[in-house]
Amino acid sequence: MHDVKEVFRDQEAPAGRIVRAIAAIGAATASQLVKSTGLARSTVSTLLSELKDCGIVLELDTKSNGFGRPSQLLSLNPATGRCAGVLLGLGEIRIVICDLAHTVLSDVWFEMRRDYTPEEAAEQIKDNLTRQCASLDLAIEDLLGVGLAISAPLSYDGRVLNGDVLPTWGGVDLAAIFSKHLECPLHAENESHCGALAEMTWGAAIGEKDFVLYKFDLGVGGAIVRDGVVQRGFNGSAAEFGHIALDPNGSLCRCGNRGCLQTFVGGYHLMRHAEEFGGQPVTIDQFIERAREGRLGYRRLIEDAAEKAGWGMGVTATILNPPLFIIVGKLATIGEAFTNPLKRSFARHTLPPPDQVADMPRPRFVVGKFLGNDDTVLGAVALVLHQHGRVANRSETRIKSTAA
Ligand SMILES: [Zn+2]
């Protein structure tokens, strides 16, 4: 007999691989599961029968490709497991609970002091999550996991690698602090990596295995996805595209270097220039509205930003040669006034030049589904669904050692 919690958390067992593959896709055919898990067809077939018998896997409608016998679509039984995602934002926290069919069951946000501490966050999250779980007849321990999304790169063991957005959080051991309050598996990742997982689970990257995501918002972030897995790099800070150095004499960046991509393209930079131009403070939403309308000065600011954005993406393409770029963040909502000059600049900054090799396949550019802030909190839920960014939970260790 399989227990959904045991199966879901077991990184190695074949049943765990099948359940996590379905959790990541939402609904899948047996053939898709053979392909994505690499298991033998007979193993997948036997385990699916067992998982169906114990109510973890459900049969949905059939899917026809127009030829031969239609294939049976399988999903996880939404009633068997819930997961939560937490966005640790600037002056606010948002918590979402989803079931295994990716349906949002609860969505709550609350304000915090702007410089709240990790301990304050952990206490508030425990209180709010306890109430949210109670409204669904659950306890926190019943959750398959809680994902934490934060605006900073994280090490593999859940340590905040720098605190340029939340200054008091640099070097903080998230796993140690949050596991004192949340007795269930913990996952943690930076928000751009969460954004890629949200696009893979709910958005423009469903079914995409290889792509690069660029997020153009107040800052610039990104993610590299290879073979369906978000790449974290050697120390967890892969795809920090906002810090690609374009000008050694440029403005100082929050990271301490000069001329980083986000000092040209980040929303903070654009708002500052718009204020200099108009003599009045401008919010990011006002900036975007005026750029979209093509107002004097704003159109030029966005074209200059797109030029640098395309340059950064061209550098990325020269190194990684991905088949697909997904563009998200508030700047993506400006539309072609941003994406057209970006693509022209991209073509000038990568190989091969388009007029040199006519029949060379080009990467696709797609604007993502999540252009506001939903990507981060849903991506935090997806950390659990994809079993990504797992950090050791000290309370689990404690429970285990007490039991032993
Ligand atoms: Zn920088």
Based on secondary structure, the structural category is: alpha/beta
Strand order of the largest sheet: 6-5-4-7-8-14
Span between N and C termini?
Answer: 23 Å
Name of the CATH class of the largest domain:
Alpha Beta
CATH structural fold name of the largest domain: Nucleotidyltransferase, domain 5
Which runs of at least 5 residues are low in confidence (pLDDT < 50)?
A: 399-404
Account of the 3D structure:
By secondary structure, the protein is of the alpha/beta class. The protein is 39% helix and 19% strand. The protein has helices at residues 4-9, 14-25, 30-37, 41-53, 118-135, 174-179, 191-202, 262-265, 267-278, 284-293, 298-320, 336-348, 374-385, 394-403, and strands spanning 27-29, 57-63, 71-76, 82-88, 92-99, 104-111, 146-150, 186-190, 211-216, 220-226, 229-230, 324-328, 364-367, 390-391. A 6-stranded mixed beta sheet has the order 6-5-4-7-8-14. It has a 5-stranded mixed beta sheet with strand order 11-10-9-12-13, covered by helices on one side. A 3-stranded antiparallel beta sheet has the order 1-3-2. Zinc ion binds next to loops. This is NBD/HSP70 family sugar kinase. It comes from Rhizobium herbae. Residues 17-57 form the HTH arsR-type domain. Keywords: Kinase, Transferase.
